[in-house]
Structures are given as structure tokens and as C-alpha cells.
Write a structure and sequence with these properties.
This protein is an alpha/beta fold. The protein has 2 domains: 2-121 and 276-325, Medium-chain alcohol dehydrogenases, catalytic domain (Quinone Oxidoreductase, Chain A, domain 1), CATH 3.90.180; 138-264, Rossmann fold (3-Layer(aba) Sandwich), CATH 3.40.50.720. It is 28% helix and 27% strand. The protein has 9 helices and 15 strands. Strands 3, 4, 5, 6, 7, 14 and 15 form a 7-stranded mixed sheet that branches. A 6-stranded parallel sheet has the order 10-9-8-11-12-13, sandwiched between helices. Strands 1-2 form a two-stranded antiparallel ribbon. Helix 9 links the parallel strand 14 and strand 15. Helix 2 (114-134) packs across helix 3 (151-162). The longest helix has 21 residues, at 114-134.
Length: 326
């Protein structure tokens, strides 16, 4: 079968489209024929050797997939051949066939096309867990979402509204990305590269600040975000896509204001508490099946064009989700 292999740590040119052996299904696994897979920023960080999970080349990159089950292991009870599914993988998704653990595989409705299905696992599960389990969003609260034109950003904007947020504010890194966040449903969108987003956020909130901040950028953006976090507000950091070492927290900003700083990683959750994802699936997939939550797909590439797809994201040209298809 065809697959994409990271031959060594480095630039996008280390991705090789080649023939590899078709994987064998284990007792608690299913064999899935890939219809589409997503490209995530984590794939790029792993390729250059800076992901928090150390992957040693050669390996197949990719975290999630949408496809059809073609084989089941002897211990698999709740899945069967022919089912349409999404899955999280530990052995790479940039391939024509993959194996996934039963606990990390979820059936999808016929109502959901494979492109939508492939775009949804990482971003919808992440956004739902950020808002529901980490932030404990309450109806009427105000939410600020950084990187609002990206996959998680556009999904979180929609979900925040569906879950009852009164006002959703987004920041983006360029003026070209402003319409993307607005189309997703953001009430206000600010370019954090131009002007002070803290001042703008305070303006639109009457100097009260926001109740919830979702931060995947870290560094200075994280530190400045604390300046517009309301009393009893929660800021959730779930990445550092700006490549910084992180942001500093002054504890004097926390105790008297009752603010909370929370960290979240879907990857860690998949590894340490995979059973939690079943609850997440039950919460978020109905929104996708009903069409209330729409996946924003920015661009599709052939599997053989994986290097171009990753470079597209690295060059910060991407909006929404980037997909690979056979």
C-alpha cells in the first residue's frame, strides 16, 4: 500500500510517498481503509522533532482518520466490517490502510460525508473538551478564542455559540483571516498582529473582560490574555503554535481575582484516559450529524502531496482544516 513516511527530522522535504507493508490488525483493533485524513500542526512539530511525544524516524505521521472498517480483531465486540468510522491513531494516518484501537474508533452516521468526518476528530473533540470539561462554559458567558480562523478556532467559535455563549470574540494573525472567523460566527474579530487585542476586548466587554479564553499560541499572547480575563475567568492553554517557550503567570493575577489557568492536551487524554473520548463523542458528534456544527475545510491535497500540505500550514496560509485524500 502507499503511505507517507517521515524519513528523518527536518523540513517538509523529509516526507516520502512510498510503498509500505499493509498493517496487520491486532486482537483489540480494526483495519480501516482511509477515505480522508487531516493534517495537523502537531504533525509538523513531530516532523521537526519538537512535539511533546517523541517520534523517531522512520514513521508514518498523522493523528486521525475517516474511513471504512475492512477487518476486526478477535476481541472486538462493538464494531464490524463495513462500518463508516472516525478514529484516533498512534501509528500514523497518512496511509491507504491503518489500524486503530477499538476504544479510539467511533462510528459515524451516513449523514456525515467523509471529508467532514476527516476534518472533525481532532478539532471537534478538542474544542468540545476545552469548552465543556476544562472551561465549564455556562450560558451567557463571554469567550475569547485565539487563532480563530484555524481548525480548532472555527470549530470552537461555533460550539461556544451552540453551548450558550453570549458573546464570542476571536483573534487572527492576518486581515485575510478575519472573514473566516466571522463566517464561523464570531461577534468580534481582531488581528493580534495589528493593534492591542486587550484594549479592543476590554472595549467590547465594558472593561469586564471575558469569562473564558482558549489559547493555542502561548508566549506573549498568553501573558497579555490574562489582562482581559474577568474575575472567576478561566484561561485554557492547549498549544504553543507561535513557537515560543511558553508564557509566564504572575500568581498575583490569580488568587484575589479567582482566575484559573488550565492546561489541556487531546494527545495526552488519548494516551492516558482514552475512555473519556467516548463521552466526548456522544456530546459532539450529534452536532455534526445534525449540521449544526460545520467543519471548515480550507484545502484538500492528494496523499502524495503531503509535503505541500504541511508546508501550506507552516507558511500560515491555511484556514480551517487541511485534508489528505487517496
Amino acid at each position: 500500500m502507499k503511505a507517507v513516511v517521515v524519513t528523518k527530522h527536518g523540513g517538509s522535504d523529509v516526507l516520502q510517498y512510498t510503498d509500505v507493508e499493509k498493517p496487520k490488525v491486532g486482537p483489540n483493533q480494526v483495519l480501516i481503509k482511509m477515505h480522508a485524513t487531516s493534517v495537523n500542526f502537531a504533525d509538523i512539530k513531530a516532523r521537526i522533532g519538537k512535539f511533546h511525544v517523541n517520534q523517531k524516524p522512520p514513521y508514518i505521521p498523522g493523528l486521525d482518520i475517516a474511513g471504512t472498517i475492512e477487518g476486526v480483531g478477535s476481541n472486538v465486540k462493538k464494531l464490524e466490517v463495513g462500518q463508516r468510522v472516525i478514529a484516533f491513531l498512534s501509528n500514523g494516518s497518512y496511509a491507504e490502510y491503518v489500524v486503530a484501537d477499538e476504544i479510539s474508533t467511533f462510528p459515524i452516521s451516513e449523514k456525515v460525508d467523509f471529508d467532514t468526518a476527516a476534518a472533525c476528530p481532532i478539532v471537534s473533540f478538542t474544542a468540545y473538551n476545552l469548552l465543556v470539561y476544562c472551561a465549564k462554559l455556562q450560558p451567557g458567558e463571554t469567550v475569547l478564542i485565539h487563532a480563530g480562523a484555524g481548525g480548532v478556532g472555527t470549530t470552537a467559535i461555533q460550539l461556544a455559540k451552540l453551548l450558550g455563549a453570549k458573546v464570542v470574540i476571536a483573534t487572527v494573525g492576518s486581515n485575510e483571516k478575519v472573514p473566516i472567523a466571522k463566517e464561523a460566527g464570531a461577534d468580534y474579530v481582531f488581528n493580534y498582529q495589528e493593534g492591542d487585542f486587550v484594549t479592543e476586548v476590554q472595549k467590547v466587554t465594558g472593561n469586564k473582560g471575558v469569562d473564558i479564553i482558549l489559547d493555542s499560541l502561548a508566549g506573549e499572547v498568553f501573558e497579555k490574555s490574562l489582562e482581559c480575563l474577568s474575575y472567576y475567568g478561566r484561561i485554557i492553554n492547549f498549544g504553543n503554535s507561535k513557537g515560543s517557550l511558553g508564557g509566564n503567570v504572575n500568581t498575583l493575577q490569580l488568587h484575589s481575582s479567582c482566575r484559573s489557568v488550565i492546561g489541556y492536551s487531546l494527545g495526552t487524554t488519548r494516551q492516558e484516559r482514552p475512555e473519556v473520548l467516548k463521552i466526548t463523542a456522544e456530546g459532539v458528534l450529534p452536532y455534526i450529524e445534525s449540521g449544526q456544527l460545520k467543519m471548515v475545510i480550507g484545502k484538500k491535497f492528494k496523499l502524495s502531496e503531503a509535503a505541500r500540505a504541511q508546508q501550506w500550514i507552516e507558511d500560515r496560509k491555511s484556514t480551517g482544516k487541511i485534508l489528505l485524500c487517496p
